[in-house]
Design a protein that fits this description.
Largest interface: A-B, 91 and 89 residues
Helix content of chain B: over 70%
CATH superfamily of chain A: MetI-like
Number of domains of chain A: 1
Strand content of chain B: under 5%
Distance between the termini of chain A: 45 Å
Mean pLDDT of chain A: 90
Largest sheet of chain A: 2 strands, antiparallel
CATH architecture of chain A: Orthogonal Bundle
Shape of chain B: globular
Radius of gyration of chain A: 25 Å
Number of domains of chain B: 2
Low-confidence stretches of chain B: none
CATH topology of chain A: MetI-like fold
Oligomer: heterodimer
Number of strands of chain B: 2
Radius of gyration of chain B: 24 Å
Mean pLDDT of chain B: 90
Structural class of chain A: mainly alpha
Order of helices and strands of chain B: HHEEHHHHHHHHHH
CATH superfamily of the largest domain in chain B: MetI-like
Number of strands of chain A: 2
């Protein structure tokens, strides 16, 4: 024990109880920051997101399809933006989840130790790469490929507006890649937490390893895998910087080869110069995104609780 | 009927096995591809001038020194605020709180915080710290915004570390007459240190890679702080981090700068990844004792 404190670890009684109380008070305050933060974020999003809804009209904003915020007679319909986020996220999950789940099966079940030792760190590194770098690669690698594809598909079309490859499809591919690490990590731990007796029983009955994985282990890990998918949805719908430039720069119906705006990218690309009602509508877009995220969070909480009860 | 020992392989098994291997190979190939592409494209832009000067049309230099300094500012200020709060919160949850509604509310909100997308943090930071508190586009606004973002990371890692400290340590210290605070300060925190440090390093990784939450809070200033009081004043001035500069260069189609910054960012990511591995190993060794 070091000099200054060696006289007594108990200390004088009065001082002791004051210090004890202060410590407990400070720690309690720290813990309240999280509650405070979520409460004020919710309050601020509602406070700033709703004025435009009253001014322009709920129907005009949420179900309007024309986005001309800076025109003389401005129009603030964000339906296509909302649809883009929903469809883009859905497609990204459809692409990303099978790859992620199969990789998780590889890591948890079939991989020889040496190969797992290569794949696992690779996945961890992919998770650490900043989203702007995914965006940069999207522009430099994916967009030119998409442009070639676009030229081939719409060779004889007279109505198609060419996007140079910055379209929904490029954004979906970037998102699918970006949700991989989340899906892989969560489903891997779900697969690993399946009781080994189930596996042994299935193998003992003569099922092959692959049959056991798909018929026994996957169903047993269901709630963990659903968690992985929901987290993947959350990650995809909230991603902004990676797809801002990759997805193009105008609001359109979310078709694969259209230049589109997501909820997130609309905010990123227009907040810098927006003013007045335009700015307020961008906050409304933020509120819509926030509502989606809260729905995802509550769903997640429900799944996790249910999982607890089952166990 | 064939024997259960026969090694005949079912066709569906074979196909699935191949798909599993392809999926696993995909991540590795993707990572190698990304690293190779970025390094090949960007390594040429990285030199001493690039790292030590500020972009200036007058002098004809392209440099990211200002952005490097801004990134460091934001890391340090964010951690100075977030670490005590996060560790304190974890201590409360693990050592003081009794299970109940309050703890569930705190844990739910901590989970929620980690699920909120960074662009929402950006909007909130801009409105609350920037406009509400009048801090404008500044490094402090950015750091306060990021504090909320990395808080769950530090809380969770500290909590995990505290859980691994054996109860006998606690009862030992308390049984010898130590007060609870004394026990926390001299027994718990030192034992939980590797976990806390891991949380801090993960937070650094998050801060370095963050962009959406900073664009409308810390802004895009790229100048170096002026000496003397300027070093302190910088905190209230706008400052774009490396990722923000990468985004802006990319939007202006200045790809050589963008790839140069990407190389630096990837090197930082690789380093952080390595150091967390080292720490995790250390934590494991501690647990085995």
């Amino acid at each position: 024990m070091n000099g200054q404190e060696s006289f007594s670890i108990i200390g004088n009684r009065k001082q002791k109880s004051a210090v004890e109380k202060a410590a407990q008070g400070i720690f309690t305050l720290c813990a309240f920051i999280a509650i405070l933060a979520v409460a004020s974020i919710t309050a601020y999003m509602i406070m700033n997101g709703t004025p435009a809804l009253f001014k322009v009209g709920v129907k005009e904003i949420l179900f309007g399809t024309l986005w001309k915020p800076t025109a003389a007679g401005p129009s603030f319909g964000i339906l296509y933006v909302i649809l883009t986020s929903i469809i883009g996220t859905t497609l990204a999950v459809i692409l990303g989840v099978p790859i992620g789940l199969f990789t998780a099966i590889f890591l948890a079940e079939t991989a020889p130790k040496r190969l797992a030792a290569v794949v696992k760190p690779a996945v961890e590194l992919l998770a650490g790469i900043p989203s702007v770098i995914y965006g940069l690669l999207g522009i430099m690698v994916l967009n030119p490929i998409m442009y070639k594809l676009e030229l081939a598909v719409f060779k004889n079309s007279e109505t198609h507006q060419f996007t140079g490859g910055a379209n929904l499809l490029s954004a979906v591919l970037v998102l699918a890649i970006m949700i991989l690490p989340t899906v892989i990590n969560i489903s891997e731990s779900a697969l690993r937490s399946v009781p080994p007796q189930l596996k042994s029983a299935s193998l003992a009955l003569g099922a092959s390893h692959i049959q056991t994985i798909f018929r026994v282990i996957l169903p047993a890990a269901k709630s963990g895998i659903v968690t992985a998918i929901v987290l993947g949805v959350g990650r995809a719908i909230g991603e902004a910087m990676a797809i801002t430039l990759v997805s193009g720069s105008s609001v359109n119906i979310p078709l694969p080869f259209n230049s589109v705006r997501f909820l997130t990218t609309a905010i990123v690309s227009e907040m810098g110069y927006a003013a007045g009602v335009h700015r307020q509508v961008l906050f409304t877009i933020g509120l819509v995104l926030f509502v989606f995220i809260m729905i995802i969070n509550v769903t997640l909480n429900k799944i996790l609780k249910k999982g607890d009860v089952e166990q | 009927m064939s024997s259960i020992k026969s090694s005949k392989i079912r066709l569906s098994d074979l196909i699935l096995k191949i798909l599993i291997n392809i999926a696993a190979a995909f991540s590795v190939v993707l990572l190698i591809g990304i690293l190779a592409y970025v390094f090949l494209k960007g390594i040429g832009s990285v030199n001493l001038t690039f790292l030590t000067t500020v972009t200036s049309t007058l002098k004809g230099t392209v440099g990211i020194a200002g952005n490097i300094v801004n990134t460091l500012y934001i890391i340090v200020i964010t951690l100075l605020i977030a670490t005590p709060l996060g560790v304190g919160s974890a201590i409360y949850l693990n050592e003081y709180a009794k299970p109940g509604k309050l703890v569930r509310a705190i844990e739910f909100t901590t989970e929620t915080l980690s699920g909120i997308p960074s662009i929402i943090f950006g909007l909130f930071g801009m409105m609350f710290f920037g406009t509400g508190l009048g801090l404008g586009y500044s490094i402090l606004t950015g750091a306060l915004t990021l504090t909320l973002m990395v808080l769950p990371l530090i809380t969770r890692n500290t909590q995990e570390a505290l859980k691994t400290v054996p109860d006998s340590y606690r009862s030992g210290a308390l049984g010898m007459g130590a007060t609870k605070w004394y026990m926390i300060r001299t027994i718990l925190l030192p034992s939980a240190m590797p976990g806390i440090v891991t949380g801090i390093i993960l937070a650094i990784g998050r801060i370095v890679g963050e962009s959406a939450a900073l664009l409308f809070t810390a802004g895009s200033g790229y100048l170096l702080p002026k000496g003397g009081m300027g070093i302190l004043k910088k905190i209230l001035e706008s400052g774009g981090t490396l990722t923000i500069q990468l985004y802006l260069s990319m939007a202006k189609a200045e790809y050589s700068t963008a790839f140069g910054i990407a190389v630096i960012l990837l090197l930082i990511v690789l380093f952080i990844n390595w150091i967390t591995k080292v720490l995790a190993k250390k934590l494991d060794v501690n647990n085995m004792e």
